[in-house]
Design goal:
By secondary structure, the chain is mainly α. The chain has a domain of about 45 residues. Helices cover about 80% and strands about 0% of the residues. The protein contains 4 helices and no strands. The chain is elongated and about 60 Å long. The relative contact order is 0.05.
Length: about 100
């Protein structure tokens, strides 16, 4: 550690570590209970708050670049479409069992 660090700086650093550790634990528990990473839950929360939100506004709220938000949203919708297709296939197959 830097020998010139003040007690106040060390106190602030320790508080930051506590906050960071708490948030990591929270997001770990959230992912275990929901099956989605915390970042995706955050995006869904923003979409729920403003269903009409566009990709640019979503990126701005989350601190993403618009390009990253577009890539993320494409990936997300592909996963949703895949799960819907597979869910209907599973339902159709179980109807004939």
């Amino acid at each position: 550690m830097n020998e010139t660090a003040t007690p106040l700086a060390l106190e602030v650093l320790q508080q930051f570590r506590v906050i960071y550790g708490t948030m990591r634990q929270y997001f770990r528990e959230l992912e275990e209970s929901c099956g989605l990473p915390g970042s995706q839950m955050w995006v869904l929360q923003e979409i729920e708050r403003s269903p009409e939100i566009g990709v640019t506004e979503l990126a701005c709220r989350l601190g993403f670049t618009s390009r990253r938000a577009v890539c993320w949203s494409k990936s997300w919708w592909q996963k949703i479409a895949w799960s819907r297709r597979n869910k209907s296939r599973i339902s159709d197959a179980s109807a004939f069992a």
